[in-house]
Write a structure and sequence with these properties.
Elements (H helix, E strand, L loop, with lengths): L1 E6 L4 H11 L4 E7 L8 H4 L22 E4 L5 H8 L7 E4 L14 E2 L2 H9 L3 E3 L3 H15 L7 E7 L14 H4 L4 E2 L8 H11 L7 E7 L6 E8 L4 H12 L5 E3 L15 E8 L2 E8 L7 H11 L16
Parallel strand pairs: 1-2, 1-3, 3-4, 4-6, 5-6, 7-9, 11-12
Antiparallel strand pairs: 7-10, 8-9, 10-13, 12-13
Subcellular location: Cytoplasm
EC number: 1.2.1.38
Family: Belongs to the NAGSA dehydrogenase family. Type 1 subfamily.
Length: 322
């Protein structure tokens, strides 16, 4: 049984992790740390857990009790935490922040996109979990990069739910502003662009094209719907086969023959990709749940890999169609 601790347990990603881990057949949730909620029941914050667990938050973490720690803190906080705390070498870390996703000197974290780095993840003790937008966009393009077929700039429009902004309330996540509303933010300069370009260059070393990314705030709660298009010389049939072959060994990515919708993936660790050819352009749609495949579900997928478990264990989550 894998003994698990969560650092920063009050946010949305931590709530999803707790729900998954409480039902994971090979995981034991040993502690959930929160500096502001020590002594409170998990269900006091994550109210949907009422009746599911009597675990209480702890204010301080005891790393001698666990095999793996999930870091669910805000961006910049994980790096700060590691500078202030000594983590035993035998304790594996899966970080859900942005802090260690980019390769830099001294960064021992492996980028945790299983569809890109599965074998590296299996051998690693430190995993940098990808960003939610980054996951969906990369899954739309990885097969092209792996075949060296990105020949021009990429155009990306992706809409995300309000949970992508985190649990702390803000002007743009307030219900009365977000409901029945759509807006663009961080056009062409979103923080996930660095990790996206890094992955494409890993697969296609000569990749040096612009990624024209327009992020959109949606008026729904969860889920990312990304549309990508770029020039492609081959036929639609060739593109579909390329994607089917690439994802054949990856259990959470499905190549759809029909135009997908968001409800097919919400509340699951699935990713659905769909392709159309328009003239000399290939359009790829990618649909994911930002809190699961884009965060906590993928983090558990990485845990399964680093502990030698079946990749899908504990992640048989069902979509809600209506």
């Amino acid at each position: 049984m894998i003994k698990v601790g969560i650092i920063g347990g009050a946010g949305y990603t931590a709530g999803e992790l707790i729900r998954i881990l409480l039902n994971h057949p090979q995981a034991e949730l040993t502690f959930v740390q929160s500096g502001s909620n020590g002594g409170n029941l998990l269900s006091d914050v994550h109210t949907d857990l009422l009746g599911d667990t009597d675990i209480k938050f702890v204010a301080e973490a005891d790393f001698s009790l666990i095999d793996v720690a999930f870091f669910c803190m805000g961006h910049g906080k994980s790096k700060e935490f590691l500078q202030k705390n000594t983590i035993p070498e035998n304790v594996k870390i899966i970080d859900l922040s942005h802090d260690f996703r980019l390769k830099r000197e001294g960064n021992e974290f492996v980028y945790g996109l299983p569809e890109l780095n599965r074998e590296l993840i299996r051998k690693s003790n430190r995993i940098a979990n990808p960003g939610c937008f980054a996951t969906g966009i990369q899954l739309a393009v990885l097969p092209l990069a792996a075949a060296g077929l990105i020949k021009d700039e990429l155009h990306v429009n992706a809409i995300t739910g309000s949970t992508g902004a985190g649990q702390a309330p803000s002007q743009t996540s307030h219900f009365s502003w977000r409901n029945n509303n759509v807006s663009v933010y961080k056009a062409f300069e979103h923080q996930h662009l660095g990790e996206i370009g890094q992955s494409f260059k890993q697969l296609q070393p000569n990749f040096n094209f612009d990624i024209n990314f327009i992020p959109v705030r949606g008026n729904h709660t969860r889920g990312i719907f990304a549309s990508v298009y770029t020039k492609f010389d081959g036929s639609l049939e060739e593109a579909v086969k390329l994607y089917q072959d690439y994802y054949a060994s990856h259990p959470f990515v499905f190549v759809s023959q029909t135009n997908p919708d968001l409800k097919q993936v919400v509340n699951t660790n699935k990713a659905i990709v769909y392709l159309e050819k328009h003239g000399n352009k290939l359009m790829i749609l990618s649909v994911t749940d930002n809190l699961l495949k884009g965060a906590s579900g993928q983090a558990v997928q990485n845990m399964n890999l680093i502990f030698g478990l079946e990749e899908t264990l504990g992640l048989n989550l069902k979509a809600v169609a209506f």
